[in-house]
Write a structure and sequence with these properties.
Blueprint: H1 2-24, H2 34-40, H3 58-72, E1 88-97, E2 102-110, H4 113-126, E3 142-151, E4 157-159
Antiparallel strand pairs: 1-2, 1-3, 3-4
Helix pairs in contact: 3-4
Length: 166
C-alpha cells in the first residue's frame, strides 16, 4: 500500500517539477529600447466629440435667417452703426418646420405697436426661411428661436444677430 501511495505521489510531483524546470528555462523577453516603448504605450485623454459644422449650429442658422430677412426687406432695413438710443426694439419668436416654412411668429416683447407690426410684416415677406438642416430635435417637426429687431426713428431695422455693437 505504501508503494501505491508513493507511486501516486511521484506521479503528481514529477509533472509539477518538470513544468517548473521548463518555465525556469525560458529566456527573458527581449529588451525594448526606450524610444520604442514611448510609441507603444498610449496614455492620452479621450478625444472630444467633433463639433458640428458651422452650418449646423443655431448661431449660424440664425445668421443665415437674418441675412435672408434683410434681403427680402431691403427697403425696410438700414445698415451702418446703430443710433445711440434705439426708439424701438421688438423681440419675435419664430417657429419654422423642417422645410423652413413659418409655422408661427409671435411678438415676445415690444413697447411700440407700430414697430411690432413692421417686424411681423417683415417676417411674413421673408417666408419661407432657409431650412434648419440638422437642428430639429428628434421626433420634432418644428423649431423655435428668437430674433430681435432694432429700429431707428424711421421704423427701419437691423437684426441683432448681424448688428454690430451699439
Amino acid at each position: 500500500m505504501n508503494i501505491s501511495l508513493r507511486s501516486q505521489a511521484l506521479d503528481s510531483i514529477v509533472p509539477a517539477a518538470l513544468l517548473a524546470i521548463l518555465c525556469g528555462c525560458a529566456s527573458p523577453p527581449p529588451a525594448v529600447p526606450v524610444d520604442e516603448r514611448s510609441t507603444i504605450a498610449i496614455d492620452r485623454a479621450p478625444t472630444p466629440a467633433p463639433s458640428p459644422p458651422p452650418s449646423l449650429t443655431l448661431e449660424a442658422y440664425k445668421a443665415d435667417v437674418a441675412r435672408h430677412i434683410l434681403a427680402r426687406n431691403a427697403g425696410h432695413s438700414f445698415s451702418g452703426p446703430l443710433p445711440p438710443m434705439l426708439p424701438a426694439i421688438v423681440v419675435v419668436n419664430i417657429t419654422v418646420d423642417r422645410d423652413g416654412r413659418l409655422t408661427d411668429v409671435q411678438v415676445q416683447r415690444a413697447r411700440d405697436p407700430d414697430a411690432a407690426r413692421v417686424a411681423l410684416a417683415s417676417m411674413l415677406r421673408s417666408g419661407p426661411l432657409p431650412r434648419p438642416h440638422g437642428l430639429l430635435a428628434a421626433n420634432s417637426s418644428a423649431m423655435t428661436f428668437s430674433e430681435t429687431f432694432l429700429f431707428d426713428r424711421d421704423y427701419r431695422f437691423q437684426l441683432r444677430t448681424l448688428a454690430g455693437p451699439q
